[in-house]
Amino acid sequence: MESLDTLELTLTLSPKDPWSEILISELSELGFDGFLQTDEGIQAYANASIDPEKIMDELSIARNQQVTCAWKAKVIPHQNWNAQWEADFHPVFVEDYATILAPFHDESLGKGMVVRIQPQMSFGTGHHQTTWMMTKAIFELPEMPSDVLDMGTGTGVLAIIAEKLGAKRILAIDIEEWSAENARENADRNSCTAIECMWGDRDKMEGHDFGLIIANINKNILKAQMETYASTLNTNGTLLLSGFFSTDVEELITFAAPYGLTIEKEFAKDEWAALQLKKNG
């Protein structure tokens, strides 16, 4: 049974790199959906029903002699979560394209497009390299298609940017009910009217066609859903993928090819990568 409280897992790593990125990827598949980089490692957040000792036994560092890891866990009461985020949420600048601000930030901090996000427990504040790259990729598209899917929407930040850049109909889906609700609240916060936020999985894509699909999740889910992305993407449509490491790029390009998806552009930031694929006619 899930708790309303939140587990905060603090990991101190030596060396920090590349282990902080590896552990974020692993923890994202073990029920964690919020992450903060620290000077010495990471802090990861999940529902308090998760057993941290069991999680630590499952991580790759438990069997690797090249890294040492100290960890501690604490439970954050439900009502304190927003205060924790406010203490750590700094403005995010995506080159000169956009600034992602929290509701309590001064508007004068922004340059380019200003997007206001209250993250709650959702992934996608722009702080993580994958969200940053996806934001950049969306801005650098030659044109914004009318129909857009944001799969694994998290805070809804990428859907909001798509609407602000001219998309007319955006379907924003997340497997977590509270993320879909958070995305809906953030869409309202940014005066968006074209975003439909839905709680669910890939079945929610059925009956829709898209000119652009945005999916910032993780490699295994991207591969599992690749066929559905291809079947709902219009000919010559664009698929933007992230949530994986640079070392996974060739694997994903090869995996996507049988579905008529070919590489157009690659992005990299630190150890992370993003891909821009096109559906061939």
Would you write up a description of this structure?
The protein has 281 residues and is of the alpha/beta class. It folds into 2 domains: 6-81; 129-279, Vaccinia Virus protein VP39 (Rossmann fold). 28% of the residues lie in helices and 34% in strands. It has 8 helices and 14 strands. It has helices at residues 19-28, 52-58, 81-88, 129-139, 157-164, 177-189, 219-232, 249-256; strands at residues 6-14, 32-37, 41-47, 68-76, 92-94, 98-101, 113-116, 147-151, 169-174, 195-199, 210-216, 233-245, 261-269, 272-279. A 7-stranded mixed sheet has the order 10-9-8-11-12-14-13, sandwiched between helices. The protein is globular. The model has no long low-confidence stretch (mean pLDDT 89).
What is the fold's blueprint, element by element?
Layout: E1 6-14, H1 19-28, E2 32-37, E3 41-47, H2 52-58, E4 68-76, H3 81-88, E5 92-94, E6 98-101, E7 113-116, H4 129-139, E8 147-151, H5 157-164, E9 169-174, H6 177-189, E10 195-199, E11 210-216, H7 219-232, E12 233-245, H8 249-256, E13 261-269, E14 272-279
Parallel strand pairs: 6-7, 8-9, 8-11, 9-10, 11-12
Antiparallel strand pairs: 1-3, 1-4, 2-3, 5-6, 12-14, 13-14
